[in-house]
Inverse folding.
């Protein structure tokens, strides 16, 4: 849980809103949100009894990815690369006038799309 909270706060710019235990499930839950508190909340849940978390191969996933809009793709990719974050797709433009996008993975292998609109 600490590794994921660190990733989403330090590298993705979210703010930890709350974090608490769920004794019924032997779990811990954390909610994160953009610093202005205006966007959607991200919920992270850690189940202590779960022995292994395994992402299926990309083609077999039912859940595809999360997406975050950002202001400076070049700066973000440089920071993420310096932190040894897996960059699965380098930044590319969607069409002539579309946004710039890239894909990375969080510490557990969840695919994240980065979007820069200008």
């Amino acid at each position: 849980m600490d590794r994921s909270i660190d990733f989403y706060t330090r590298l993705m710019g979210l703010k930890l809103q709350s974090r608490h235990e769920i004794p019924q499930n032997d779990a811990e839950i954390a909610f994160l949100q953009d610093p202005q508190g205006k966007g959607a909340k991200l919920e992270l849940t850690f189940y202590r009894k779960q022995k292994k978390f395994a992402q299926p191969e990309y083609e077999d996933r039912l859940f595809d990815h999360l997406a975050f809009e950002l202001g400076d793709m070049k700066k973000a990719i440089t920071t993420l690369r310096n932190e040894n974050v897996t960059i699965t797709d380098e930044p590319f433009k969607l069409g002539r006038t579309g946004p710039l996008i890239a894909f990375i993975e969080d510490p557990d292998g969840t695919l994240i799309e980065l979007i820069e609109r200008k």
Q: What stands out?
A: Residues 88 and 104 are 5 Å apart (CA to CA). The first helix runs from residue 2 to 11. The radius of gyration is 15 Å.
